[in-house]
Design goal:
Radius of gyration: 30 Å
Shape: globular
Strand order of the largest sheet: 9-8-7-5-4-3-21-22
Number of strands: 28
Number of helices: 17
Structural class: alpha/beta
Bound molecules: zinc ion
């Protein structure tokens, strides 16, 4: 067993920061390694989940989802594989949430169904979002959610002491997390940017600098904007641009932005009220954020400024501001429905102005373009963000702000996280320019394990299993890749069903096979092809049934005779489903035989 001793540190003059460094009540154990690994978030933007493990304790940071690419047909979410954590659930001492975005909290309902934990720590805004989410999944009673106060909250376990640092991001109550471990201090930035004139709370520069001063062994930092040079535009400047646009727009103003961007929503609503406009908010996720934002005091707009959809026609156009979801071209969101004329309350009128307070996320440009075209076609004046207009800014640090973080925290070792592979590599290169040696930068994949040993870091040989799990609806058991593969074949090549009627008593086909297809060929024009296919199957089966055979062999015979023929004729490989119907009398005979066999085994 490893030798352990408890170490108490003497009080420092700075009372507030004192506890950051101290390991009060924390067991100091240099003999056991501290391990750091990601269940998700490395090599991807999404499903963030980072773990710190020491002996019989695990600390988890975040539990997110990633939304699937369009080639994962029918998949609603992708989540990390929780098997390792399930096997080690007695070790889990804390789950802390950096902020309330889906890529950090969206996996919680699935996680809690598989892994028992006592409590989750989250800031006020994330806590409200998590409560709503867990309530929808009837999981609210399964776990206690403790509210983080960045100034005072401290989580202490046998080996760890954990604290929080205010950061600026595109949602309120975002934190960086520092973890004192027996082998060194870790700082995980969470999603962050630096903004010298933010809306809402500013980053706690002093605390970050203090943590850097007392020494950080490993920094894990947000890599989303690693390839973007320079500094980000301030949210204050965006607020100003929206104000000016709102004031000079003559008719109705329709603004679309990210639902969760609470401060932006507050800015848009305040600008509308300042311009003597009443506001109507559409889109479930945005109404939800509005509700929480007002309850927690981030959005301060009087009830009298809000109108419902029914009241829109009672006011002149220049007294109206509509705020809605759909800035990413999501087909079911409010803005798409406004654009295609299916929204319950809003039809585009001549003179309407639609403002996108957003940028398309890579991959969404085509659908956003489609919505913009539709809006323009029905007569709206569409304004999008551009380098010249400042109607939107990012929530993630570009290169210069990443450097500022590296300079404040001054880590000995660096592991870029929250990003695709190229972003992680770029962030490492940025870190090197701030003086971190190349050999101290670790570009890792999900499941790679970093070892902290006495304030040194190296990569372990062992890995932890971390596959991506596809969630279909609420089923988190994980669709196997074969299901996804089938869906892709169905989408691209279609389906061919072959129906054969036989009499197994005489080993005989009763009539020619019948072929039905969907999404394969246009049936009317392919009569000869299908008739010929039926004959090919018929001949193959007749040959096969000259000897005794099984249902399985017959199905294989249908597939192996039909698939090459269809491919040769159409250059397509549809899914072939053989359906074998047995004559009623033959089925009865089989069932009677089975009953007799069961009875005889029972007698034995
Ligand atoms: Zn975020
Ligand atoms: Zn994120």
């Amino acid at each position: 067993m490893s030798e352990v001793k408890t170490k108490r540190k003497t009080a420092r003059h700075n009372v507030r920061y004192d506890e950051i460094a101290e390991q009060k009540e924390v067991v100091i154990d240099h003999k056991t390694d501290t391990l750091v690994y990601a269940m998700g978030g490395l090599g991807e933007v999404g499903k963030n989940m980072y773990c710190v493990e020491h002996d019989d304790e695990i600390i988890i940071i975040d539990c997110g989802v990633i939304f699937p690419d369009s080639d994962l047909l029918g998949v609603d979410y992708v989540i990390p594989d929780f098997t390792y954590l399930q096997q080690n659930q007695s070790k889990i001492k804390a789950l802390v949430i950096t902020h309330g975005h889906e890529d950090h909290i969206g996996g919680l309902p699935f996680f809690l169904k598989q892994v028992r934990i006592k409590e989750i720590w989250a800031g006020p805004f994330a806590k409200a979002l998590i409560e709503k989410k867990l309530d929808e999944h009837h999981l609210l009673r399964s776990v206690k959610i403790r509210e983080i106060n960045s100034e005072e909250s401290r989580i202490r376990t046998k080996y760890f002491s954990i604290g929080f640092v205010d950061t600026v991001h595109s949602i309120p109550d975002s934190y960086g997390i520092f973890i004192n471990t027996p082998n060194g201090r870790i700082f995980e930035t969470g999603d962050f940017k630096f903004d010298l004139t933010p809306i809402g709370k500013n980053s706690d520069y002093q605390k970050m600098a203090y943590i850097g001063q007392i020494g950080v062994t490993l920094l894990m930092s947000d890599s989303t904007n690693s390839s973007v040079p320079g500094w980000s535009i301030s949210e204050g400047k965006v607020a100003q641009a929206i104000n000016e646009q709102m004031a000079k727009t003559p008719g109705r103003m329709i603004v679309s932005t990210f639902a969760s961007n609470t401060y932006r929503l507050a800015q848009i609503l305040e600008a509308a009220v300042a311009c003597n406009r009443k506001v109507a908010v559409f889109g479930r996720s945005m109404e939800n954020v509005l509700d929480i934002g007002r309850r927690l005091g981030y959005i301060n707009i009087p009830d009298s400024s809000f109108i419902t959809g029914n009241e829109l026609n009672t006011l002149p156009a220049n007294r109206i501001c509509i705020v809605c979801t759909g800035s990413q071209g999501e087909p079911m969101a409010a803005l798409s429905r406004i654009a295609n004329g299916t929204h319950r309350f809003i039809k585009i009128l001549p003179g309407d102005t639609v403002l996108f307070s957003s940028n398309p996320i890579p991959g969404n440009a085509v659908s956003v373009g489609g919505v913009i075209n539709q809006l323009t076609r029905v007569g709206a004046n569409v304004i999008t963000n551009s380098p010249l207009t400042s109607f939107h800014t990012t929530g993630h640090a570009p290169q210069e702000e990443q450097k500022l973080m590296l300079n404040l925290i001054k880590p000995k070792y660096f592991m870029p996280n929250h990003g695709e592979y190229k972003m992680l590599v770029q962030h490492s290169q940025t870190a090197m320019t701030t003086g971190i040696p190349k050999e101290n930068c670790f570009v890792c994949a999900n499941g790679d394990v970093l070892v902290l040993r006495n304030e040194e870091v190296f990569e372990a040989k062992e890995r932890i299993q971390t596959d991506a799990i596809y969630v279909d609806g609420n089923d988190a058991s994980g669709l196997s890749t074969s299901v996804i593969k089938d869906r892709r074949i169905l989408a691209e090549n279609g389906l061919v069903a072959v129906i054969v009627t036989i009499d197994s008593r005489y080993n005989k086909i009763l009539c020619r096979p019948n072929i039905v297809s969907r999404g394969f060929v246009y049936i009317k024009e392919s009569q000869t092809l299908l008739k010929e296919a039926e004959l090919i199957v018929y001949d193959a089966l007749k040959k096969k049934m000259q000897q005794r055979t099984t249902f399985g062999e017959l199905k294989n015979c249908i597939r192996s005779s039909l698939e090459p023929y269809l491919y040769k004729k159409t250059n397509r490989n549809p899914i072939v489903i053989p359906i074998i119907l047995n004559q009623k009398a033959a089925m009865e005979e089989i069932q009677a035989k089975m009953k007799a066999r069961q009875a005889s085994t029972r007698r034995k």
